[in-house]
Amino acid sequence: MKKRLSIKDLLHASWKNFIEHFMDWLMLFGVQLIVLFGFFICCAASLALAYYFFVELCLFKCALSGYSKLFTVATISIISVVSLFFMVIFPIMYKQNALDLVFNRTMSGFDVNNRFFSYAVAMFVYWMVVMIASCFGFLPGLFLAQRWRFVGLHLLYHGGSVREAFRSSWHMTRGYIWFLVGVSIIQWVIFSFCSPTLVLIVLAIALNRLIDANMYKQLHIEDDKNILLCSCES
């Protein structure tokens, strides 16, 4: 028999996790802002450099040396790629740290492990399939998005194959589609309300990740109980 999930309990547990580790979330978000700022500076420098090459070198034939040009372009490119890499990694870090708190483990902080790559691959497949399904209508895309909602969290918590993560998420979300849709709406409202303020956006990002992690924990425990019950009956 399925245990009825409570949005109130999810919000209460997530808020408690956030308050207890507020400074950790603030530090994680602060470092991400620094990286994001560096990325924008590199993008601006790249555009300025491209403009300089076009105007000065092509129109006025006034050039830097070949070595200097190559060094400048290479430096900006490397910094941009590294910054972009961390911009992709940080959202995964939020999910990993949320899982750590919910399952009473020490926060991973800025630790990057091999599960992050599996997560990135799984999310690429996830969004491709959801977008293709959405071409056939809003409901098919919504249905698949919610049924496979915990693919990434399964990989971060358990590891294993991408295929197994899709199967596990499909199994544990059975019967909870509209509940998950309701939670998604609440998360969107939280983010929309908090995003205009820099301080509150930390709350929105962390709270939404913790809500997902708490939902995953409850559904994961319930799914394990159902599997154990079926094994005993057989």
List keywords for this structure.
9 helices, globular, mainly alpha, 234 residues
Structure description:
It is globular, with a radius of gyration of 22 Å. The model is unreliable at 60-67 and 227-234 (pLDDT under 50). It has one domain (7-233). It is 82% helix and 0% strand. Helix 4 (115-134) runs antiparallel to helix 5 (138-147) and helix 6 packs across helix 7 (162-172). By secondary structure, the chain is mainly α. It has 9 helices and no strands.
How is this fold's topology laid out?
Blueprint: H1 7-20, H2 22-59, H3 66-102, H4 115-134, H5 138-147, H6 151-158, H7 162-172, H8 177-194, H9 198-233
Helix pairs in contact: 1-9, 2-3, 3-9, 4-5, 4-6, 6-7, 8-9
Output the number of helix runs.
9
Query: Any idea what the radius of gyration is?
Result: 22 Å
Order of helices and strands: HHHHHHHHH
Residue windows where pLDDT falls under 50 for at least 5 positions: 60-67, 227-234
Mean pLDDT: 80
Helix content: over 70%
The oligomerization state is single chain
Strand content bin: under 5%
Indicate the structural class: mainly alpha
How many domains? The number is: 1
Distance between the first and last residues' Cα = 17 Å
Tell how many strands the DSSP assignment holds.
Answer: 0
Largest β sheet strand count, sense and barrel closure: none
Described by the principal axes of the CA atoms, the overall outline is globular
